[in-house]
Amino acid sequence: MKTIGIPLAVFACLFLLGGPDALAQPDLTSLSMEELMNIKVYSAAKKPEAIWNTPAAITVITPQDIRRSGATDLPDLLRMVPGIRVEQVNAHSWDISIRGFNGSIFANKLLVLIDGRSVYTPLYGGVFWELQDVVLEDIERIEIIRGPGGTLWGANAVNGVINIITKKPKDTQGWLISGGGGSDERGFTTLRYGGKADDWQYRIYSKYDNYGKGFSTTGSNTDNWDITQGGFRAQKDKLTLQGDYYQSNIDSTVSNTLYAPPYLENTHSTDLARGGNFLADYREDDWSFKTYWDVTDLQLHDLNERRDQVDMEYNRIVSLSARQDITWGLTYHLNVEQESNTNYLIIRKPPHPDQVFSFFSQDELRSWDDKWKLTIGSKFEHNIYTGFEFEPNVRLLYHINEQNEVWAAASRAVRTPSRLEESGILTAATTTPVFSRLEGNGDLKAEKLRAIELGYRNRLSENISSDLALFSDYYDDLSIVDLGDPVTEHTQGFSVITYPYDNGAQGEVHGAEISTDIRIKEWWKLTAYYSYIKMSLKMKPGYTDAGLGRSLDSATPMNSSYMRSSFDLPRGFKFDITFRYTSSFYSGTIPSDPEVDFNLSKEIKGWRVAISGWNLIDSHHKEAVPSLTSTQVWRAWYIKITRHF
């Protein structure tokens, strides 16, 4: 049984200790709304610019947000962003999307970057969130663009971009020791050291996390896991070198496909996932060059895969005048993979070396009085699956006055097929000698999005600001499984019914996102958002629906809301309480879900002690559609102790 009584008793004792509060880093809640709006972001233009001058729906998660959230992993941090759906499938897997298309294979239209390194996997078109980890105290900010980002970031940045940016080594000098545990994340520890050597500044770190299994109604699921990770970052003048290595042991309940009785076998599996990366980044004021190598080695029950990805990117900013800048860049990406096939999954080799060549150019024009800014640009890209693609956008920002601004955008973005969609063969296990098989289609076209966005921002005073974004997205050539014309084969005493992937769906998605920050008192701040999304997808003429369109429509909750109340209490305590709500989805399979989280922290003689409670309303709840591998999310608590010196 999960309980929060013990940690609350611990903090009752801590409260009696009293003492001054002296945080090691500045509290961003002390900044005015104007100062927050002027935080520099990079992801929307590939150059630094203030949020107030950005014609896009963008949210920034600051170090203060991270500390006060109580989150211990990246997915939980993202729950505070409007328009993002975070869905925990089991103890070690998450589906995360922006503006719809969440759940399983549909969460494939989001580009995620860590210090500019893409962690989007070509295997299925998503992100292995359980393998993406950073030291949370080393994050400088997380920039989230809601809406298309293809002009700058290329194919697959369809509905949004998440860019996790870590601090420079000079900002992480000295020792950091952090550790703790609780009911769900059973134990975690981080050790980091930052120092200097000649002209170099650097940091090195190691961390370990151990997670317990999720709740299962049968009690038979085993999905506990752990991950060990280490790495470094070093900087000399304008050159940055960094790298990471990780290894994870993942338990799961799996189904083995057998082509003889009993045909299906449910077993326990312990999978191994490991990998690493190395990145070099050189930056001048008006140009930059970055290259990285990323390797993933998966030894799973249904797939053994070694994947190497190499990326090189050159960006340049050219100022034609005081009122006009052109940003342009070249990118080369190489993907090399080796798979060992099984009865369940076969990946055929690509017909040519998997390479992507791209060029982008974006022109920014500003008026003489800085009232408006016009941005026009496009990405031009070539890949081996769909050939030449282009992704243009036009954006206009208008400052009504010093407190109000509006912006509008029209964009085109594409998503290229994943390896599974293009050349995979996936055979479903069954208890009878009749198997269903999904087969990749080498003639798939890219999925296409035409998006229209309208935004409004205001900073009414030093204590109140708000942000509104409206969007209408029009999709075509969506990749789905064609259920209308299967091929049946009879061989060796069993039958196989094969369904191909095809570009068989289209439709519209409309929505709104509104957020606000209010500083009620110097010691009390409210942050809130509400998101609405309406999906209307259908099969194209000639394709059989079989309920798939309705499943896509209901894969994302129509309504979601969030509110965090932050208090600076007497005796140096900081207390944050969060209310989250999502309406029911998947045609009511997942009920509406109100949840409450809290985080209470205090510094005591240089040690920061925090206790967090998550999902407090119910002992466990569903976030994903029930399946063999899914479990429910527990009510949970954690204690975390951190020291900088």
What does this structure look like?
- The chain is mainly beta and 645 residues long.
- It has a single domain (5-644), classed as Beta Barrel (Maltoporin, Chain A).
- The strands form five sheets. It has a 22-stranded antiparallel β-barrel.
- Strand 21 and strand 22 (387-399) form a beta hairpin.
- The longest helix has 13 residues, at 5-17.
- The protein is globular, with a radius of gyration of 25 Å.
- It starts with a helix and ends with a strand.
- The relative contact order is 0.15.
- The model is unreliable at 1-26 (pLDDT under 50).
Keywords:
645 residues; mainly beta; Maltoporin, Chain A; 22-stranded antiparallel β-barrel; 5-stranded mixed beta sheet; 37 strands; 7% helix; 58% strand
